[in-house]
Write a structure and sequence with these properties.
DNA polymerase, domain 1; alpha/beta; Rossmann fold; 226 residues; two-stranded parallel ribbon; 9 helices
Amino acid sequence: MDFPIKIKAVVIDLDGTLLDTAPDLAHAAELMMAELNMPPVALATIKTYIGNGVSRLVKRVLAGSMDAEPDTALFERAYPIYLKHYGAHVSLYSRPFPGVIEGLQALRAMGVHVACITNKAEAFTIPLLRDTGLLDYFELVLSGDTLPKRKPDPLPLLHACKHFGIEPGELLLIGDSLNDTQAARAAGSFVFCVPYGYNRGRPVTELDQDAVVASLPEAAKLIIKA
């Protein structure tokens, strides 16, 4: 691929791309497990469970597995406990990754549209972006429950294209996981991956991406406004 690529909009994933949210997700899991009188799960393990929304995270924590299903009654008891604790501590430890603020400023100066697309529920997304000072950088925020489908389905990306009046080939998604690359490819959009996020413990070099970028400022250097 020839760089820089010409695009009109950049959409960015939240957990593992913009913000290091794992400490707060793990903290809520620790409080939930304590309330259930179950052993805690290590932060390193929690990081591999992130990416498919809170309900799937809770199931993985309870089952101690990426794919196994916990007891239904246990999940129904645990899920509201997790939501209570995460809602109370959504931004206690979460912070932007290095270069995020500078990268968002560079994209703003470039004049491209900038949106955040996440699988996290809106009830957590908006307070988290606001508390960490990122909310005002985005013209559009799509959460996991904003639309009928979420990543890896292409619907959120196609919705963003319609919102900005652009074609999918004029949009770049910056993310950290398989969900992001699958969504971008299904939409017909470009996708860059950062290596520091939560790709279920696997390197992003294995994913179908257009570039691996160390930071958002590095991503900004590989694009120009169409």
